[in-house]
Amino acid sequence: MSSQPKRVVALGWGDAETALALGVQPVGESDWLAFGGDGVGPWAKGLYDKSPEKIGTLEPEYEKIAALKPDLILDVKSSGDQTRYDTLSRIAPTIGVPKGGDQYKISWQQRTTMVAQALGLAAEGKKLISGTEAKSAAAAKAHPEFKDRTITVGSRTSSGWGAYVKGTARIDFVQALGFRNNPKVDAKAGSAFSVPVSEENLEMLDADLIVMAPIGVKAAKISSDPLYKSLPAVKAGHSVVFDDPNVSQAFATNSVLSVGYAVEQVVPLFAEALK
């Protein structure tokens, strides 16, 4: 297509993977999770013919971006900062956080649609979305035991425990598999991605299935914690603690490629934990 941009710089979290899924290789990208190499997760491995120039994440180097002479800049899953957007727009046409959208909270479907349209590949984008949604639907159909079971998707960092709330990527993901988010967590939801959970209130995590991700700590910090082990779901074996960082990072990236990868990786773990 003659109108398709030839030189794309992808700055938003997972925007490069979205372009790659559509067959477009960015000349520059931001590596949000410090994967190294081509700056993408294993779900996008081998999709670059030539490694892209690396650009900073929260503070992109505008001169470096300009030197790449982009036709289009993707900054879709981003802070939405107006100064950032204005500065990028002076370099090249920029696709930023959608109007009225929250920073870093865009769904993978909306992001794929926006990037595909900007690349002149709208039909290909629709096909990608339906194919990935079909993976979740097939998993849900194959596992009727997931339907309407309550789930807590949480994390533990060096500063404490937390649980993700409705409307965020991780919860959208498990809901597509048939689960229902822990209502005790949703009752505490504010504008943030997650709610903090104090050790005194750790029983709030209890649900039919508890799924926990270690962030900046070892998985054992969760699985060997006496309070965590005392939760009814954990005692019953209905708990999954991700010990593969790629799985947690697939959720965090929330691109059309990483979501498909996450379905393949976690559905067997969820099914085993609910036996």
Write the layout of secondary structure elements.
Blueprint: E1 8-10, H1 15-21, E2 28-30, E3 53-55, H2 62-67, E4 72-74, H3 82-91, E5 94-95, H4 108-118, H5 122-142, E6 150-157, E7 160-164, H6 169-176, E8 180-181, H7 183-186, E9 194-197, E10 209-214, H8 220-223, H9 226-229, H10 232-235, E11 239-241, H11 245-253, H12 256-273
Parallel strand pairs: 1-2, 1-4, 2-3, 4-5, 6-8, 6-10, 10-11
Antiparallel strand pairs: 6-7, 7-9
Helix pairs in contact: 4-5, 5-12, 11-12
Percentage of residues assigned to helices: 25-40%
CATH topology of the largest domain: Rossmann fold
Largest sheet: 6 strands, mixed
Mass-distribution shape: globular
What's this entry about, in short?
This protein has 275 residues and is an alpha/beta fold. 39% of the residues lie in helices and 15% in strands. Helix 3 (82-91) links the parallel strand 4 (72-74) and strand 5.
Description:
This protein is an alpha/beta fold and 275 residues long. It folds into two domains: 8-120, Rossmann fold (3-Layer(aba) Sandwich); 138-273, Rossmann fold (3-Layer(aba) Sandwich). 39% of the residues lie in helices and 15% in strands. It contains twelve helices and eleven strands. The strands form two sheets. Strands 6, 7, 8, 9, 10 and 11 form a six-stranded mixed sheet that branches. Helix 5 (122-142) runs parallel beside helix 12 (256-273). It is globular, with a radius of gyration of 19 Å.
